[in-house]
Amino acid sequence: MLDIAQLRLAAAGVDAPRRDARLLLAAAMEVEEAALLADPGRCVAVEAAQRFADYLEQRVTRRPVSRILGVREFWSLTFEIGPGVLDPRPDTETLVEAALAHVDASGHGREAAWRVLDLGTGSGCLLLALLSELPNATGLGLERDPEAAAIARANAARHGLDTRAQVRAEAWEEVEGAQVDLIVSNPPYVRRGEIQDLAPEVTRYDPWSALDGGPDGLDAYRDLVPRLAGWLAPGGQVFLEVGHDQGGEVQALLQGAGLRTPAGVCDLAGNLRCVRAAAA
Ligand code: GLN
Questions:
Q1: Residue 166: phi, psi to the nearest 5?
Q2: Same domain (yes/no): 166, 267
Q3: Nearest in space to 233 (alpha carbons), one of 175, 275, 278, 174
Q4: What is the pLDDT of residues 175-186, one digit of tens each?
Q5: Are 75 and 96 in contact, with CB atoms under 8 Å apart?
Q6: Domain that holds residue 33
Q7: Which residue of 1, 44, 137, 156 is 20 to 30 Å from 257, comparing CA positions?
Q8: How far is CA 90 from the centre of its chain?
Q9: 221 is in an annotated binding site
Q10: How many other C-beta atoms lie within 10 A of the C-beta of residue 215?
């Protein structure tokens, strides 16, 4: 069953056809992937086989496994996703690591009452991953798309973080008077002319508004950067995700706005992925 599925997915251009076939079969059978690996000849019930066939039809259209199953793991937490939210990427975990490293180096410890602001929160993955590590932190996530904001709220409730995380269906232009310790954001940063070159999983299924960074990919940063200093409490820091080759340009924008840019953090591929900023 897996062999044929793998061949179909490979023919459709899927990157890791064996793994995806196994993930979908495990989900269809409602077993862990490890159980399938341990016992590949396991017998498949009719309903599970039908479900698997349906999942495969979807994956052949390059719909990502996460969107077929409606969930994505991020920071070892399960996030519900939907059409209005960007599918969380492993690269974005770099921002969580960077913000936690700052917390650990601050001398205040993870138990302090950190205040977090997440701009363009999408599924809520950045805000909620941070609150899951900082037991007394509170946070505000802003998300323009009301459907995505509803998903972020559902994710907060799913992880028992809804008493500490507030999600507002607003644009970041509307934040006033915020004074926070940690600002995180994964804004849209793909150069408009390059969106069409991304994988079909991205171009067909991620929301355009979460990808499109304008002609040079920097529109969202140009809008965001001048506002940051006004939202930072003393000692606060900003953690911005950037495209693999945009680190220098975004640091220059931040410096131009009078902010300091301590060394950023690289992703697993070695690209500067998280740019940091603080009040001068
Ligand atoms: N990392 C995403 C991609 O390249 C882009 C997300 C974004 O623009 N913030 O597919």
A1: -110, 135
A2: yes
A3: 278
A4: 887 899 999 999
A5: yes
A6: 2-61
A7: 137
A8: 7
A9: no
A10: 10
pLDDT digits (tens, 9 = 90+) for 189-233: 999 999 999 999 999 999 999 999 999 999 999 999 999 999 999
| 66 lies in some domain | no
Full-prediction pTM beyond 0.85?
A: yes
Q: What is the CATH number of the domain that holds 222?
A: 3.40.50.150
User: d(Cα 126, Cα 66) in Å, to the nearest integer?
Assistant: 17
Beta carbons of 148 and 118 less than 8 angstroms apart: no
Going from the Cα of 191 to the center of ligand 1, the distance in angstroms, rounded, reads 10
Q: Are residues 189 and 213 in the same domain?
A: yes
76 is in an annotated binding site: no
Atom of ligand 1 nearest to the CA of 186: 9
> Looking at the structure, do residues 34 and 145 belong to the same domain, yes or no?
no
143 assigned binding-site residue: yes
Ligand 1 atom 4: residue of nearest CA = 190
Sign of the CA dihedral with 32 first, then 38, 43, and 49 last: positive
